[in-house]
Amino acid sequence: xxLDLKPGTVSYIDAGKGPVVxxxxxxxxxxxxxxxxxxxxxxxxxxxxxxxxxxxxxxxxSPWTMEEMADSLNEFLDELHVKDSAxxxxxxxxxxxxxxxxxxxxxxxxxxxxxxxxxxxxxxEKNARNSMIAAIEQSGVAILPERMLPRLLQPNPPAGxxxxxxxxxxxxxxxxxxYAVMAMRDRMDFSSMLHRIVCPTMVITxxxxxxxxxxxxxxxxxxxSGARFVTIPNSGHLSNLENxxxxxxxxxxxx
Length: 255
Ligand code: MLT
Fold this sequence. Notes:
- This protein is of the alpha/beta class.
- Helices cover about 45% and strands about 20% of the residues.
- The protein has helices at about 35-40, 65-80, 90-105, 125-140, 145-150, 160-170, 175-185, 215-225, 240, 245-255, and strands spanning about 1-5, 10-15, 20-25, 45-50, 85-90, 110-115, 200-205, 230.
- A hairpin with a 2-residue loop joins β1 and β2 (about 10-15).
- It binds D-malate (MLT).
- The site of D-malate (MLT) has 7 residues, from loops.
């Protein structure tokens, strides 16, 4: 499905009927990373999964901040006449979900932060973002699979998952990737706001996630009153893709 919003055209999956679940994808992927969750949820929920600006089929790529992306999601829900939703974000999707909650808390019925963190980047992480931007400017997104796959997925990933993730990365334009890296580099620190989250929240970590370590996820869960903390076994950073059975079971039980 496609919808014209102020910043451009948003492409999205809209499947099922019932309370809305909004799925926000990770970097540098697109909404096809949610295929298994859409199948698992859409007989009980209305699942909305947009491609973030410039990714997948959402065009054009243009610079954004987490707060601007929250505004775009707000406009997206307005256009679809959706009052509130469970908001589920993996990694970059979790950063966006937190920004969305901070501006539009009444629209967040439940919150799921998967393989994500609340703190801002430290100096070393910002430097790594800058070197990634320089590398993409020089060589395009072709450098991303080699750089990222060993960290996105746990060791010895199944060939099918590697192929799917490579395909998603291959469809990402250099501009979209660069703007997202900038947005992640410049995102604000939400750590001191977590105690204000009052909606039911689940924090998910991957047993073998080396991008967002379990300690970072645990810190997020500890700071949110009553948050559920779930470890997805046998998974790295992309826990919803690497162990969809465990991820979907945790999600369904929480929702
Ligand atoms: C993601 O998976 O969305 C990104 O790797 C997150 C990050 O780089 O901070």
